[in-house]
Known about the structure:
Oligomer: single chain
CATH architecture: Alpha-Beta Complex
Number of strands: 7
CATH topology: Phosphoenolpyruvate Carboxykinase, domain 3
Distance between the termini: 26 Å
Number of helices: 7
Mean pLDDT: 82
Helix content: 25-40%
Largest sheet: 4 strands, mixed
Number of domains: 1
Shape: globular
Structural class: alpha+beta
Amino acid sequence: xxxxxxxxxxxxxxxxxxxxxxxxxxxxxxxxxxxxxxxxxxxxxxxxxxxxxxxxxxxxxxxxxxxxxxxxxxxxxxxxxxxxxxxxxxxxxxxxxxxxxxxxxxxxxxxxxxxxxxxxxxxxxxxxxxxxxxxxxxxxxxxxxxxxxxxxxxxxxxxxxxxxxxxxxxxxxxxxxxxxxxx
Length: 183
């Protein structure tokens, strides 16, 4: 998806799921993309819905869901089709459709097998060259019992600049019994 020239800066309430041991460091020092797994692009990974946040909490015990404010202007949207598991192929197709095959050519399966971080850096570079400041991955319904959810990683926002991500200075209220809310 090409950037909208009339795009407005948007601050979104999302989640970051972190190891409990890292929460105090995040409060003191803020966010960084260094040392994290970079499956789609290089940046700070955020869950855009409650189900995705719960998926990450369940994948590894000792994790906390933190409300986060992310400021983005021009995210690149990648919609993962139902039944699709191959994140690299999905990313290649999305960039090729938006900017042509030449732009997508550096993305290859071999590069992913050699070094995930290198591939994430390539994807981020391509998207930044085209005016994007984030990557949004939309895969639809998420379930921790569904292997596709685990493989794709759920509905995510990857913000390239860690300084555009901040812990929210409030706690989200717990939903009333039986209530369904987006968070």
